[in-house]
Amino acid sequence: MMEKQTKIGTVPKGWEVKKLKEVFHINELSLPSNTDANYKFKYIPIEFVTTNHIDYENCEAFRFVDAPGRARRIVRENDILISGVRPNLKSFAVFKKPDNNNWICSTGFYVLTAKEENDNLFSYYELLSEIGERQFYSYVAGSNYPAIGDGDIRNMKLMFPKDKSEQTAIAAILSKVDEAITSVQASIAATERLKKSLMQNLLTGRMKPDG
Prior knowledge:
By secondary structure, the protein is of the alpha+beta class. The protein is 32% helix and 25% strand. The strands form five sheets. Strands 4-13-10-11 form a four-stranded antiparallel beta sheet. Strands 8-5-12-9 form a four-stranded mixed beta sheet, with no helix packed on it. It has a two-stranded antiparallel ribbon with strand order 1-2. It is globular.
């Protein structure tokens, strides 16, 4: 079996191409309009999601009756959040439930729930890669409002190894790299805080160079 050339790139031997809607339930669960007014949850707006990161700490708690109108999408452990607005900015993240609250995100997200568990993380990294990037760009290019439509995201195409264990192995390697990046970023942030403190104390005479 030879490699195959497609619009999304060269498909390696032993891999196949699938549409996103074949692999994921998309926006499977939402709060209905008749939800109990006192139903409580924490809300994830688009601005609290950046690549690989959800700012859980600053997400506000609401009762349904007081919540923003866009607070409707139900999110569950390992769901993928994809911002439908300006997807080229890659405000994408995997939801990891941080507490026992109910969690809801903005309708500005597409919430992807994997039909098979091992498709989840592999697909997420592919959406972040050039394979996803090129497709997102093609859908929003030339648009006055840079957003991707429901039909477009459902028909996005991804490549998959037919061997499920290969998917898992690839996702595990990329996840380890992400963990290393997060660790380095945390160290840099801590060093920057230390520098700021030293500058404040040394340059105001509150600390002497001899310690």
